[in-house]
Amino acid sequence: MTMDKKTIRFTVNKEMVEVTVEPNALLLNVLRNDLGLAGTKYSCGTGACALCTVLVNGEPILSCITLAMAVEGADITTIEGLAQPDGTLDPVQEAFLDHGAIQCGYCTPGMVLMAKDLLNKNPHPTESEIRGHISGTLCRCTGYTSIVRAIKSLSK
Amino acid sequence: MKTYPLEIKLNGELRSVDVEAKETLLEALRNKFGATEVKNGCGKGDCGSCTVLLDGQPVNSCLTLALQAQGKDVLTLKGLGGEDRPHPLQKSFAERGAIQCGFCSAGMMLSAKALLDRHPRPSREEIREAISGNLCRCTGYKKIIDAIEDASLEAKS
Amino acid sequence: MDELEYFRPKDLSEALRTAESAQGAFKFIAGGTNVIPDMRSETLAPRLLIDLGVLDDLRYIRDERGTIAIGALTTISQILASDAIREKVPLLFAAAGRLGSPLTRNRATIGGNLADASPCADTALPLLVMEATVHTARPRGTRRDIPMDRFFLGPNRTALAENEIITEITFPKPGASERGSFIKLGLRNAMAIAVASVAVQLDLRGRTCRKARIAFGSVAPTPMRAAGTEKNLEGKDIDERLIRECSLLVQEEILPISDIRGSAEYRKMAAAALFRRAVQEAVSGGGE
Lengths: 156, 157, 288
Hints:
By secondary structure, chain A is of the alpha+beta class.
């Protein structure tokens, strides 16, 4: 069985990119290995931990169980695309820093993007809504308390 | 319960309380002097989270009777510095990400301070040796060693 | 431990008088690095603690021409900081550096390490191979000199009487032809109770061993000299074959048990390996 590679184009962090990939290439691996964007983490590889979360056309998806070819033409945001071009951090990132919501840092890109997604959809989430929204994203270090506090501090 | 008067200089301030004979310095610091920045990890000297400087020397406060500190200088993390005037070690630990859960951090910084007071420019091997009595389960130690190295490169310690 | 009392003697005599009148229900404490964990685990439950840590005139290291004298209350850190020890007694320097951690070494004393009498007491091994003497004081002015190889009687048991305090440890300064090595195998770089440890001191002329002293820790109820292996080395030229032969003898002489840190079988193999390495290091000019 041959795998016919195909060249596809999509936008990542507002930049148009072009990659040539096999049909079974995973979006996570294309982002990390072909495009050098290692901020999105490879953790469980089975969609269970959500550390591979990226936004596709504004919606969070699990890039470890998404084929690269499935996002042809889409608009993708990874953690690298959150801060301003001049380096100014997003308020979500600042809040995580201020509240000690980062220990080993491995869940942080996924957590931050889910937080961003929540606040985009609901600017005044309750604690319960926050916990519900990040319920698919695992953290082994913090016990979640500081993460929830960080997100709550942005709830206006 | 028989008690004895204990007077120590805690972070530069003369303090006194009554303690029992069996009370360790760790217990007196946390429970009577309110110095909860000194952590109780294993209670038997293995982990080093209870490290304080006793007359400038790093010791396990869980292996020192409170009464054995009679009349001595005790330095804890709070005596090292604070938010308004952080010690170079506190700055470098924060900047290097050498603090995750934070439980080992006070002991690590005090062992490091004792080292830098004796050897202002230690090698990484000397740093490892100096913190060999302090366990960390989070960081894998590399960032802690980097942070101590950074602090040693700052002019004053 | 409810009504525990604490006493600070002003000098050695007062410490001894207080011990005598306490009639057994007391414990001497120095650095506290063994006594405090033992009290917490209730292995020890004294009514009175007599703090020897305040006896500063028992803290010294003296180089008295042919003899080194170390005061019993000298801390392990002080031993490591001593130029005399580092340069002239590398075996003790090496063992002191592997005892506990930088934190416990600031409190632990050499007298305490011996009095605690763990089967793997780190300072015991160099002192055994250097044939040291333990000097003590008892009430009413009596003194004793106990040779190191008669000091340990069993796990945590010594020849010391109840009211007897170690004052000083002395040993002949190692000579120019004496080469040694100390190796400790532990499960961690610090705060490790040895799985097995060895100290070797050989008086060499070229490769000929004129005198051999070998001590092991953690492989018997007390730190022990391997007398049979020593005799097998003396008067011979040290080569690979002899070292191998002696390492087999070692395995027969030692009496390890299986415990939480290792099996008896493992300890036999480890002790033999440490012995081979230590002899090779000593012969190739190692001072430690």
